[in-house]
Write a structure and sequence with these properties.
Layout lengths: L2 H37 L7 H17 L4 H32 L1
């Protein structure tokens, strides 16, 4: 196989791994944030924060020459799964508290 092709595919694989690792790190922080917000009596999901994130992602996409729709599609997928994870974590915590 062509060495350049192999090297470029390896570089893409490394990028993909970094994306998955970043999502895993984000998910762990989101879970910690959900627990902290619950201790403060705050709602687990903050729509205004999501609006801020979208604006930041738009700006970053523009700076890095990524089509805005691609960046926002990724952000929205991350947010959908983050919300689901947070709501499940909150429900689990509530069940644990109820059981004790």
């Amino acid at each position: 196989m062509d060495a350049t092709l192999t090297a470029l595919r390896a570089e893409i694989d490394a990028c993909d791994g970094a994306i998955v690792d970043a999502i895993a790190r984000r998910r762990a922080v989101v879970e910690k944030l959900a627990v902290h917000k619950q201790s403060l009596g705050l709602a687990p999901v903050d729509g205004s924060r999501e609006v801020e994130l979208e604006a930041r992602w738009r700006e970053r996409a523009a700076r890095t020459n990524i089509p805005e729709e691609v960046a926002l599609e990724v952000l929205r997928a991350v947010l959908v799964h983050s919300r689901a994870h947070v709501l499940a974590a909150v429900a689990d915590a509530n069940r644990e508290r109820s059981a004790t």
